Amino acid sequence: MSAAMALQMSPSEAGARRADPSVPPPLRSAIEAGLSRSSSSVPELITGLSDADRRVRLAAAVALFNIAEGGTKAVPALRSALHDPENDVRLAAVMALGRMGRGAALARPSLLAALNDGDRLVRQSAAVCLVDSESEAGKALPVLAEGLGDQNPHIRCNAALALGRMGEKAEFVVPMLLDTLKDGDSHVRLSAAMALEMIRSR
Hints:
It is built from 13 helices and no strands. By secondary structure, the chain is an all-alpha fold.
């Protein structure tokens, strides 16, 4: 299962996977933690991030994404997870860090390094996480601009909206956003239009 699929898993799907007798206990525990969204499970999830089983590491990162700011103690472990050999684990770790609020500031050096990740989804997610950082947003800009031309319409939408959040800092990509208004996907066109409005109004 990919990180995107895991993040979109419904409670009923997660419950069915948890009840499956073939699911190993560490994976079951990580799924339960994601469903409960309780910060009390964070120490166990930190351990799960370094488990030998990729499924456990992915489930632990997804659970921390669901717990969000309640999981700030896991920031160092999530930073380490950005070096995981599996793309989906790194992606889930980046997305979890993006929901850590002030705790994510500790992860900025790692998120900056993730801008050069070999996986485009990881690069784009790291760039989105850095958009609201006054000091680092500019470094995310080239990656987001690259995302406007990605084959995945979801990435194009996210890139456009993230550029819009940057306001005048993204002024130089306005021509690219204008071109994106001709995109074949209506959601991408809408995202580009919204981004242009955000840039012009800030």
